[in-house]
């Protein structure tokens, strides 16, 4: 028996909602909506009394899974580990297929975001790189080869 109907979205808590949103929009995602959430629903789901968040929902061009960026208005955010490496427990990366990996990596570098390692090729099928984006979010960019 499966309880999952579809993969809906990945949520990431950030401090600079506008800056992180701008990064993902420049990468090619589209803002689907922006809103504040507070009250009994949020307090029940996240388990934080008197909480309020501002949320931006981003959609991929193919209409697949979405990316939810959330900023806590209250209580204040708790610092994470923005320099986390791939072996640190927790969310490892957010991954996107791109048409031109080199152009995407060059764009990220021009915006001040560097590679975690290098550009690798997997079995002649994929080229991939990890870019450490805003607030330390690791963004995996992959391009089909051939």
Automatic annotation (TrEMBL):
PROSITE patterns on file: VOC
Residues covered by the VOC domain: 6-144
Keyword Metal-binding belongs to the record: yes
MF annotations from Gene Ontology: metal ion binding; methylmalonyl-CoA epimerase activity
InterPro entries named among the record's database cross-references: Glyas_Bleomycin-R_OHBP_Dase, MMCE/EMCE_epimerase, VOC_core
GO biological process, one term: L-methylmalonyl-CoA metabolic process
Keyword Metal-binding found: yes
Domain of life: Bacteria
Keywords: Metal-binding
Protein name: VOC family protein
């Amino acid at each position: 028996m499966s309880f999952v109907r579809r993969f809906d979205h990945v949520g990431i808590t950030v401090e600079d909602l506008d800056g992180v949103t701008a990064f993902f929009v420049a990468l090619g995602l589209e803002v689907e909506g922006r809103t504040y959430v507070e009250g009994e629903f949020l307090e029940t789901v996240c388990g934080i009394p008197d909480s309020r968040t501002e949320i931006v929902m981003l959609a991929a061009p193919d209409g697949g899974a979405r990316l939810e960026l959330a900023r806590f208005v209250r209580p204040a955010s708790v610092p994470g580990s923005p320099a986390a490496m791939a072996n640190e427990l927790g969310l490892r990366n957010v991954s996107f297929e791109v048409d031109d990996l080199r152009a995407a990596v060059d764009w990220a570098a021009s915006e001040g975001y560097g590679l975690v390692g290098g550009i690798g090729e997997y079995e002649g099928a994929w080229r991939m790189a990890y870019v450490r984006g805003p607030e330390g979010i690791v963004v995996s960019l992959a391009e089909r080869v051939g």
